[in-house]
C-alpha cells in the first residue's frame, strides 16, 4: 500500500481509513473532498494530525488555522474543532491516542 495512492475522493465530507488500531492508539488516513459537512468534533482523546497533501482550514475553540502540506498539530482531548475548508483530495495522517492520563 502506498499512502499517497488514492482510489477515491469523496464528493462530500471525508473518507476515514484505519491503517492500524489497538487499545491505545488508532492511526488513520483521511481523504477530504472540497465540500465539508458542518460537523463539530469534541473527542475524549488527543489527536495528532499532519497534512500530507493539499490544504485545509480548521477551527479549534473559535480560532481558524490554515494548514498546508507538511503542517501538523496536536488537538487536545476535549477541544471543540471542525474542518471548515479543504482542497479536493487533501490527505491527512492522524494518530488518535485513546489512553490519556491527563
Main traits of this protein?
0% helix, 102 residues, 5-stranded antiparallel sheet, 8 strands, 3-stranded antiparallel sheet, mainly beta
Architecture overview:
The protein has 102 residues and is mainly beta. 0% of the residues lie in helices and 53% in strands. The chain contains no helices and eight strands. The chain has a five-stranded antiparallel beta sheet, with no helix packed on it. Strands 5-4-7 form a three-stranded antiparallel beta sheet, with no helix packed on it. β1 and β2 form a beta hairpin. It is globular, with a radius of gyration of 13 Å. The termini are far apart.
Task: Give a summary of the structure in a few sentences.
With 102 residues, this protein is mainly β. It has strands spanning 14-21, 25-32, 46-53, 55-60, 63-68, 72-75, 81-86, 90-97.
Question: What is the fold's blueprint, element by element?
Answer:
Blueprint lengths: L13 E8 L3 E8 L13 E8 L1 E6 L2 E6 L3 E4 L5 E6 L3 E8 L5
Antiparallel strand pairs: 1-2, 2-8, 3-6, 3-8, 4-5, 4-7
Amino acid at each position: 500500500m502506498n499512502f499517497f495512492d488514492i482510489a477515491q475522493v469523496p464528493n462530500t465530507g471525508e473518507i476515514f481509513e484505519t491503517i492500524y488500531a489497538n487499545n491505545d492508539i488508532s492511526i488513520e488516513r483521511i481523504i477530504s473532498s472540497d465540500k465539508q459537512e458542518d460537523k463539530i468534533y469534541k473527542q475524549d482523546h488527543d489527536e495528532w494530525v499532519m497534512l500530507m497533501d493539499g490544504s485545509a482550514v480548521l477551527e479549534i475553540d473559535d480560532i481558524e488555522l490554515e494548514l498546508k502540506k507538511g503542517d501538523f498539530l496536536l488537538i487536545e482531548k476535549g477541544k471543540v474543532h471542525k474542518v471548515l475548508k479543504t482542497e479536493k483530495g487533501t490527505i491527512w495522517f492522524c494518530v488518535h491516542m485513546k489512553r490519556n492520563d491527563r
